[in-house]
Amino acid sequence: MSIPSPRFPRRLIALVPAAFLLGHGLAQSAELSSALAERHAQGTYREYFELLALPNDATVPEDIRKNVDWLEQAFRKRGFTTKQLPNSGKPMLYAEFPGSDPARKTVLFYMHLDGQPVIPAQWAQKSPWTPVLKRKTDKGEWEEIDSAPLFSGPLDPEWRVFGRASADDKGPIMMLLAAIDALKAGGGQPAVNVKVILDSEEEKGSPSISQVMQAHRELLRSDAIVIHDGPMHATNRPTLVFGNRGAADARLTVYGAKVPLHSGHYGNYAPNPAQRLASLLATMKDDTGRVTVAGYYDRVKIGEADRKIMAAVPDDEAALKRRLGIARTDRVGANYQEAMQYPSLNVRGMASAAVGDKVANIVPDKAEAEMDLRTTPDSDAPYLGKLIEAHIVKQGYHLVKGTPTDDDRARYDKLASFSYRSEGADAAGSPINSPIGQWAYKALTDTFGTTPEPVRIRMMGGTVPTAEIVRVLKVPFAIIPLVNADNNQHAANENLRMGNYVTGVQTVYALMTHGF
Amino acid sequence: MSIPSPRFPRRLIALVPAAFLLGHGLAQSAELSSALAERHAQGTYREYFELLALPNDATVPEDIRKNVDWLEQAFRKRGFTTKQLPNSGKPMLYAEFPGSDPARKTVLFYMHLDGQPVIPAQWAQKSPWTPVLKRKTDKGEWEEIDSAPLFSGPLDPEWRVFGRASADDKGPIMMLLAAIDALKAGGGQPAVNVKVILDSEEEKGSPSISQVMQAHRELLRSDAIVIHDGPMHATNRPTLVFGNRGAADARLTVYGAKVPLHSGHYGNYAPNPAQRLASLLATMKDDTGRVTVAGYYDRVKIGEADRKIMAAVPDDEAALKRRLGIARTDRVGANYQEAMQYPSLNVRGMASAAVGDKVANIVPDKAEAEMDLRTTPDSDAPYLGKLIEAHIVKQGYHLVKGTPTDDDRARYDKLASFSYRSEGADAAGSPINSPIGQWAYKALTDTFGTTPEPVRIRMMGGTVPTAEIVRVLKVPFAIIPLVNADNNQHAANENLRMGNYVTGVQTVYALMTHGF
What we know:
Strand order of the largest sheet of chain A: 1-2-7-3-8-20
Shape of chain A: elongated
CATH class of the largest domain in chain A: Alpha Beta
Distance between the termini of chain A: 29 Å
CATH architecture of the largest domain in chain A: 3-Layer(aba) Sandwich
Mean pLDDT of chain A: 92
CATH topology of the largest domain in chain A: Aminopeptidase
Oligomer: homodimer
Number of strands of chain A: 21
CATH superfamily of the largest domain in chain A: Zn peptidases
Structural class of chain A: alpha/beta
């Protein structure tokens, strides 16, 4: 069985209606059969195991450098030109596939080579750095099996490889290399110019990626960025993500008397800051969980087309509620996806004096609420922070910096301090129906069909450093996750479903062989 | 200088207008001059030092027994008959002054011989159990001085004796013994039958005092109970207290999802229990600090006469607010005293997830508020607890016992648990203008005059075990504190102002020599 030329895929031409090809002008596109993808995936499993055996916590620069060196060789032997981009002793790796053609669009593939720290004792295997193959028993438990068949025998898509970074994010890097192998084996050229950047500090929040990208702006110049990171939708359908919320945090402290007071002698007399904090927080959200701070949602604009796409996401909300153990959700949006389009105001921690064993009969001297504000592209940390601050003042509070002075205490009945800051990861969004969105959608549906449709996420609720990645290049992006949702990302027993390795190879292959 | 006969005080008759005497029928009353009180006080200082040298933490029964034995001898040598009342190895001491006359009313004087535990390192003296004499320097610091003059030389009322239990509550016991010495030296008899009970576990909440008193009900039978405990008003004016609030506590937990959730993926979707707890607490009090739980204050009845007495208490609220560091107080009552007449609902602790270093970007799974409810004689823990419970239900909450089950979670949007209990010390109140109140008032004003008036506290905000002390005997009571307000009660460097020792002797003497 031969692999069709990726740029001129005869088999594809035979299968796809002419009208479709003409309508999109994508006659050079191609998809990779699952059988071929499986063969090329299998061809990379030894390298995958080797790579997983390299510890990659970004707090250990020498470990990061070992990963970079190994990966540089892996790209070079496939014909890429490579360059290590200096980054305080933890270089990022840049790789470019040869044969760049100015007539084609250029896609920058972003992945990361570093991983979360590990607590080995929590892992059900010898070491997080010694990958193992497991299968699920009839009882639903993961059982380690001999990994030899992985490298030569027939494969079971339900097998999983367990090890740190197996899914997040070394798996996707290897899928890209396998896709390249498939492309080269077919003798073809990709339909886009392929550039790759491998971040070395993603799990630390990519603190300096903007500077690194700025320093190599010309090298990285591209028309689109594809981010292969994070999990696919829980249904494991092909998934496209066009944005993510950003993270900001805020801290609110309400002050009472100077010191904790005897609650017998001062209860009913000295204002209670825990009670006041409660009353203040109560003014910030209504009973349905919607933020009532004036203007908080004003900048969020969701069109009808977006609403349709969000409603089409196959979230099983009944199952989700069962899993979370809640009878009813907040009603910020009509469904889960819509709720994620809005900035949040979440009390992530609250404290006043003590509860439990250490509780005492006092009127506390202060009460604190820690909040996190998930931001959206239009509603950033300064915008939201200022609105909350104005809201607090409107409730009669005098805001102080730090602890109130005696003079503040004598003058103002209601005293509070409020601060907010971006956590360094802003929200990012790219239109679903932009040429990039359409290109990615077509690559996926050409490969996997439209029944069911790929899952398209307008904006995911969590925060990934997309904004930092795209900031310098200012080009559209799509996040295209490749790994199973239940991969235990960041936790013990991280794993990759081998069926996802294969579909991942098909996905990357399709992106490379579709032009736009 | 001779001491007038306590029962037929010639000097008093000469000084007090005849109309006054006739009106009250108290011709047998007497007051003790401060010079004589000082002499008899000084006569007991060696014993006072001996008694203070006996450790008296009620967790050490053998120490308690040493105190009881010592005190038994001190009372016996003054002619009292005594009896140790068994109390799990920590006997209470009962003492009765001879010459009991059924024609006279009987007063039971309550004090306690045990003390708070000590942390010796926190004391600015060799040992909390080695009493020392101190005077205040020009710089306002306490300086230890030779104690020899205390026992023989001229006395300075501003000197203080520092040591554990110097004020709370061994000082008052010694004042009573000195008052007896003065009485005997004058050759008279008290105008009331004098019984004394010394509690051995007051600092542990007198857990079994009701049982002990029940077991010796006949022995302790009396017409009034006088409690010499606690500090005088901050002005150091003669102080009468006719009640105290009780202590109850309550715990409210609001539940969210089963486990803490990623705040990016679930903020705006999974209800936040900290936010919900805040909203719930906000419904319980208004902006002025008044409880808005239906019925909470309904049982509090304050008459015009009470209001006048409360308004007359010389609280310096401007100074108090400065000291507390608050610009404005809650507005439960028109003044401090009035505020203390109402039950309180005080959030004494609050927690949800973490603040500070351990804060995490989560939607917490639960939020807790610890409350203390100071009760009043008409509004006890079950009354207040049930009102709060009904209020919570009215806000749409389903109440569970302990953690909600999966079924609870599936059925009810708003889940909380709420529990409450008395802390074992109920509120107590005795009418200010009862015969007992009038008797105590007259004893004080006969001795110290009416300029300024004694301070009369209808009900103090804090909780002392009055209710437990009076429960069995069911007679009116008055709390008549004798020690300076700044005595560092319960803390390090507890002390007694020697001027208060002298006025204390006068006070107890007057109570014994006034009939009712």
